[in-house]
């Protein structure tokens, strides 16, 4: 799909393409939005397209797509028809409690996890997470992700200024490495929290003679 988008990098239509692709990826993860944003941003290092325009298109697309995903979760998953199984209901209730306690962190961090953003926004809608808070944290996630994705591509283009395709590979490698780092930190934090949650059983007390 990236090969089909690259010929449009000098056209004003590229901003619409980035917007649509990023918006679709929010609730249809099969669309490789990050690879496209990183790849297109590599050419911004040469002056065209505009890096500011790409940031705006990616951020607005991410925000709108996440809002659509929230709506799908609210009207489909939240209707109760998909939650009749006890296991699904338990998982749904757990997700709701997690979002209520640290919803901002979940919504922002999940934006950097492939597929995670879709799951988080769908669940947020299904548990009726307050829409104003959802928009606030989703805006932070969308802008930060847009800066991160375009920045990695732009950096790759600057490093390999005379070899744009090598710049694309470098930008994708950097983005992939940062995603792995985020996943590693998240895994360690969750593992540490799980260890703290394990309670030590009390030793039996012998009755006094």
Describe the structure.
The chain is an all-alpha fold and 209 residues long. It has one domain. It has eight helices and no strands. Helix 2 packs antiparallel against helix 3 and helix 3 packs across helix 8. The protein is globular, with a radius of gyration of 21 Å. 37% of the residues are buried.
Strand count, sense and barrel status of the largest sheet are: none
Helix content: over 70%
- Gyration radius, to the nearest Å? 21 Å
Structural class estimated from helices and strands: mainly alpha
Order of SSEs: HHHHHHHH
Can you give keywords for this protein?
mainly alpha; 209 residues; globular; single chain; 74% helix
Summarize the structure.
By secondary structure, the chain is mostly helical.
List the helices and strands and how they pair.
Elements: H1 2-5, H2 13-27, H3 33-44, H4 51-75, H5 86-110, H6 116-126, H7 131-159, H8 164-197
């Amino acid at each position: 799909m990236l090969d089909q988008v690259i010929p449009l990098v000098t056209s004003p239509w590229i901003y619409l393409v980035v917007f649509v692709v990023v918006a679709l990826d929010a609730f249809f993860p099969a669309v490789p939005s990050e690879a496209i944003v990183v790849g297109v941003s590599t050419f911004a290092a040469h002056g065209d397209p505009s890096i500011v325009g790409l940031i705006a298109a990616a951020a607005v697309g991410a925000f709108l797509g996440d809002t659509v995903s929230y709506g799908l979760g609210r009207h489909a998953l939240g209707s109760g028809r998909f939650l009749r199984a006890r296991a699904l209901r338990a998982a749904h209730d757990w997700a709701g409690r997690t979002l209520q306690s640290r919803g901002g962190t979940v919504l922002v961090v999940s934006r950097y996890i492939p597929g995670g953003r879709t799951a988080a926004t769908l669940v947020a809608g299904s548990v009726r997470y307050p829409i104003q808070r959802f928009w606030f944290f989703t805006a932070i996630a969308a802008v930060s992700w847009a800066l991160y994705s375009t920045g990695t591509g732009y950096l790759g283009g600057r490093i390999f200024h005379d070899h744009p395709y090598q710049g694309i590979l470098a930008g994708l490698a950097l983005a992939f490495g940062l995603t792995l780092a985020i996943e590693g930190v998240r895994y360690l934090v969750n593992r540490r929290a799980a260890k703290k949650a394990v309670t030590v059983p009390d030793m039996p007390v012998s009755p006094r003679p």
